[in-house]
Design goal:
Layout: E1 4-5, H1 7-23, H2 30-52, H3 56-84, H4 94-130, H5 133-147, H6 154-171, E2 175-176, H7 181-188
Antiparallel strand pairs: 1-2
Helix pairs in contact: 1-2, 1-6, 2-3, 3-4, 4-5, 5-6
């Protein structure tokens, strides 16, 4: 594979990861900032994948985003649908409310695990492509964070994973690939 310059994709991915992380802490406009961040990451992964001929990072990250959005829509539909089909003046009993809350929490955790599975695959593919260890670390932190989200400690681990993604894009080489052996041999010859 020839050497390809991916410095713009590297910067795009790093800024996208920063926006996605910071957006979660900013009220009102944070959601828009996070969305911009996810789009920048997708564009960076698409550019890197096109440059090296490997579409795994982009496809897996796209599946993770689709899974998360689809799961969120299902949870919201269940939540609002429960109240929409209830007769006027009907109130949830305490036990029904607790049961609904538990069901929605379990669905939320399942959503996180499903999306994390695809994100893990995307970052592992980026590790294979770039050799940047922090992508592998991000994949590990994402997976353990998703699995431990049920006890709420996982959300801290997911935050750590996002920081590792920022570090990984920052440390990623600007050029990927190798020079052909013949070109290297010609450079080494001294006349």
């Amino acid at each position: 594979m020839a050497v390809v310059n991916v410095s713009s994709e590297k910067n795009m991915g790093m800024w996208g990861a920063i926006f996605a992380l910071v957006g979660g802490f900013i009220p009102y406009v944070g959601g828009i900032l996070s969305l911009i961040g996810f789009i920048l990451i997708l564009l960076a992964l698409k550019g890197i994948g096109d440059a090296v001929g490997d579409e795994r990072p982009f496809k897996n990250y796209l599946y993770a985003v689709i899974f998360a959005i689809g799961g969120l829509i299902v949870i919201l539909a269940l939540l609002f649908g429960t109240f929409a089909i209830a007769p006027a003046g009907w109130r949830l009993s305490e036990s029904a409310g607790i049961g609904l809350a538990i069901l929605l929490f379990i669905l939320f955790v399942a959503l996180i695990i499903g999306a994390a599975y695809f994100q893990k695959r995307a970052w592992l593919a980026m590790y294979e492509i770039t050799g940047t260890k922090e992508f592998k670390d991000a994949a590990t932190w994402i997976w353990w964070g998703a699995l431990t989200a049920i006890i709420l400690v996982g959300f801290i681990l997911l935050l750590v994973a996002r920081v590792f993604v920022i570090i990984a894009f920052n440390k990623m080489p600007s050029e990927l690939g190798e020079e052909p052996e013949q070109a290297r041999a010609e450079e080494e010859v001294i006349w």
